[in-house]
């Protein structure tokens, strides 16, 4: 099968609106694609589509192979660009061997995977039965995979086509859970002899709480909490505001506090000294860290000192970063936790969001419980939300064997075998459909999820060759 055919189908897909949660047009396109070719097609309640192509002559005894990707794309554009993702086709260019959308996301994640599956469905290659599964809303929480009912497909071997580095075979991913702590505090009167001071740490590099958790970057919330917990030992001090961080899956790049104290100049001096040390410590990983301390006006009521003390001590004690490395896949983070955000939505309440990941189910539970305990001891109410299962690497997998020997035969070298410390839909399928033998690979994409997303066309060529060979030689 030729990669130009895959590219042609992908170009059609770039004309179809398919923001997560609004995949109707893409779903209709897939249904029509199947109907035009007389292929069995079913759509479930959430909008997942499965198109089946029966085995070609002589291949009836080959076990069914499931191919899987997602219908939706992340819709991001440069500010000031007039592009309506609900109706406008994606504008792209072919430049120096890359297909690129300069002002928007390209949607090759995962439109190119979809196109490869459709090209196989359209081909008359000799192969066993294939079931092509197109999920919805992968990018916003894997709703399609969550909502899929067992029996939607029957094959026991799955190739996920939603990876971004050609030459790398993925055989595992992390599961995750968010652990939330709700603190209640007593608001007290502002001590009129005190002055207020705004402390701000910003410009951390942050990054993804899965992919970047092993980079040793500063968590600005941890840093600020460590400073405050020292300061609060001083009686003449009130905490008024404490907040920072953002999404659960991002490392906190920014944190701020408003405090009141008799001697704000003294606090400022100690803050600068403390931060000078921190900046030295993180010089390699966060070269652009900035911090300020400035007088400010604040009308909000301070926290009772005991409540403030419990909060900042818990935040300072909360683990952050890598907890354990994998014994099966070298260099893979197995378990980690991220202190993601602190926010004050209304007077008297503070919400802390943390997020744990692990490719091992028992370890995930253990670290989530450890973090919960830190906050429970400090008097917070704790809950675990948004749990999703991981996919534990199986180095003895049959489909891995098939993919590796095919790759060596075609390109004369070994592919890299990897697992990622982030979520993939495979984790959910593995748990729901039981005993699936799975692998994930795809062509090289860059700047995924951001304007300027690009697809390497040489890598597409290799990906299509490899996928075709695997599908036709699978037995
Ligand atoms: Zn994707």
Name the features.
single chain; 475 residues; alpha+beta; Aminopeptidase; Alpha-Beta Plaits; 2 domains; 9-stranded antiparallel beta sheet; 6-stranded mixed beta sheet; 21 strands; 30% helix; binds zinc ion
Shape: elongated
Specify the CATH homologous superfamily of the largest domain: Zn peptidases
Q: Compute the gyration radius: what is it?
A: 26 Å
Count all strands and give the number: 21
Count of discrete structural domains: 2
**Helical residue percent?**
25-40%
Question: N- to C-terminal separation?
Answer: 19 Å
What is the structural class?
alpha+beta
Mean pLDDT: 95
The biggest beta sheet is recorded as: 9 strands, antiparallel
Which CATH class of the largest domain applies here? Alpha Beta
Poorly predicted sequence stretches spanning 5 or more consecutive residues: none
Ligands bound here?
A: zinc ion
CATH topology value of the largest domain:
Aminopeptidase
- Helix count? 11
- Strand percent estimate: 25-35%
Using the 3D structure, state the CATH architecture of the largest domain. 3-Layer(aba) Sandwich
Structural summary, described in words:
By secondary structure, this protein is of the alpha+beta class. The chain has 2 domains: 3-174 and 391-473, Zn peptidases (Aminopeptidase, 3-Layer(aba) Sandwich); 176-384, Alpha-Beta Plaits. It has 11 helices and 21 strands. The chain has helices spanning 3-13, 24-36, 108-122, 143-147, 220-231, 264-281, 305-317, 361-377, 398-411, 425-433, 457-473; strands at residues 40-43, 49-53, 65-70, 93-95, 98-100, 130-135, 157-160, 168-173, 175-184, 195-202, 237-245, 255-261, 290-295, 321-325, 333-343, 349-358, 381-388, 416-420, 437-440, 445-446, 454-456. The strands form 4 sheets. Strands 9, 10, 11, 12, 13, 14, 15, 16 and 17 form a 9-stranded antiparallel β-sheet that branches. It has a 6-stranded mixed β-sheet with strand order 1-2-6-3-7-19, with helices on both faces. Strands 4-5-21-20 form a 4-stranded antiparallel β-sheet. A hairpin with a 2-residue loop joins strand 4 (93-95) and strand 5 (98-100). Helix 5 (220-231) packs across helix 7 (305-317). The relative contact order is 0.18. The model has no long low-confidence stretch (mean pLDDT 95). The structure holds zinc ion (ZN). Residues 70, 109-110, 138, 162 line the site of zinc ion. The site of zinc ion has 5 residues, from helix 3.
């Amino acid at each position: 099968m030729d990669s130009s055919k895959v590219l042609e189908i992908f170009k059609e897909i770039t004309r179809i609106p398919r923001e997560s949660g609004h995949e109707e047009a893409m779903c209709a396109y897939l249904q029509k694609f199947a109907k035009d070719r007389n292929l069995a097609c079913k759509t479930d309640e959430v909008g997942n589509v499965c198109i089946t192509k029966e085995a070609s002559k002589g291949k009836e005894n080959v076990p069914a192979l499931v191919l899987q990707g997602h219908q939706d794309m992340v819709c991001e554009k440069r500010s000031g660009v007039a592009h309506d993702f609900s109706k406008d086709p994606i504008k792209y260019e072919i430049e120096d061997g890359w297909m690129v959308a300069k002002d928007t996301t390209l949607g090759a994640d995962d439109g190119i995977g979809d196109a490869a599956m459709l090209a196989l469905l359209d081909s008359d290659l000799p192969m066993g039965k294939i079931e092509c599964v197109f999920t919805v809303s992968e990018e916003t929480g894997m709703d399609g995979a969550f909502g899929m009912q067992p029996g939607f497909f029957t094959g026991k071997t799955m190739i996920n086509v939603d990876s971004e580095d050609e030459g790398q075979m993925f055989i595992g991913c992390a599961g995750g859970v968010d652990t939330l702590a709700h603190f209640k505090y007593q608001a007290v009167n502002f001590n009129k002899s005190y002055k207020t001071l705004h402390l701000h740490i910003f410009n951390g590099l942050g990054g993804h709480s899965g992919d970047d958790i092993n980079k040793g970057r500063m968590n600005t919330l941890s840093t600020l909490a460590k400073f405050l917990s020292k300061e609060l030992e001083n009686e003449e001090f009130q905490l008024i505001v404490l907040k920072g961080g953002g999404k659960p899956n991002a490392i906190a790049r920014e944190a701020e506090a408003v405090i009141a104290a008799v001697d704000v100049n003294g606090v400022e001096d100690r803050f600068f000294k403390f931060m000078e040390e921190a900046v030295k410590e993180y010089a390699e990983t966060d070269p652009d860290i900035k911090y300020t301390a400035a007088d400010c006006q604040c009308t909000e009521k301070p926290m009772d000192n005991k409540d403030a003390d419990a909060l900042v001590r818990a935040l300072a004690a909360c683990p952050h970063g890598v907890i354990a490395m994998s014994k099966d896949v070298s260099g893979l983070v197995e378990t980690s936790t991220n202190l993601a955000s602190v926010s004050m939505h209304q007077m008297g309440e503070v919400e802390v969001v943390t997020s744990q990941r692990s490719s091992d189910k028992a370890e995930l539970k253990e670290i989530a419980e450890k973090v919960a305990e830190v906050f429970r001891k400090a008097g917070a109410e704790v809950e675990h939300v948004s749990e999703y299962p991981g996919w534990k690497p199986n180095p003895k997998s049959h489909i891995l064997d098939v993919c590796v020997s095919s790759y060596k035969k075609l390109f004369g070298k070994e592919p890299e075998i990897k697992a990622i410390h982030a979520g993939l839909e495979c984790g959910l399928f593995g748990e729901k459909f039981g005993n699936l033998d799975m692998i994930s690979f795809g062509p090289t994409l860059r700047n995924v999820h951001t304007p300027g997303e690009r697809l390497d066309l040489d890598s597409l060529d290799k990906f299509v060759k490899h996928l075709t060979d695997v599908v036709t030689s699978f037995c």
